[in-house]
Amino acid sequence: MRPKEVEDLVSAMLDEMVEGKDIEIVDVMFDKEGGHWFLRVYIHCPNGVSMDDCTYINETLGKKLDDLDPIRHSYVLEVSSSGEKPLRKESDYVRFRGRQVLVNTYVPINGMKSLEGKLLGLVDDTIQLEIHGETVHVPTSRVSQARLVVEI
User: Fold this and answer.
1) What single DSSP character describes residue 98?
2) How would you write the pLDDT of the chain (152 residues) with one tens digit per residue?
């Protein structure tokens, strides 16, 4: 199966698993890094993600995947909070408006290739950040990665 097909299959499985629970599936990513495959599931819970929430998803999904065996090669299953989740979809920019984000770019924007600020939103394929009281516009075509910053 291609990565997108795996993500779609796993997303459908997860939707059934969390029905009626206070767990929201934020994203599913199936990527190859450094020669190893990773199946990453990012979750959100209204009262915070607990270790029990991650364990439930990991064990239940792991068993279903073992039984179905749709991925013919080895991979690592990771389940975590959406705290450091990459922002990939338009809905991510809506959901996390007001949160601190880190945006890395291919070319400098305002002299920087790494910008951290408060996410104001996404308008016309441009990420809007507030950095030191100023609004900075970052075209998505120049973004190599955008992700939430873990706030402690």
Assistant:
1) T
2) 899 999 999 999 999 999 999 998 988 999 988 889 999 998 988 888 888 999 999 999 999 999 999 998 999 999 988 766 688 888 889 888 998 899 999 999 989 999 999 999 999 999 999 999 999 999 999 999 898 876 54
Topology (CATH) of 3-83 = GMP Synthetase; Chain A, domain 3 (3.30.300)
Whether this model's pTM surpasses 0.85: no
All CATH 2.30.30.100 domain ranges in the chain, comma separated: 90-148
Q: Does domain 90-148 have CATH number 2.30.30.100?
A: yes
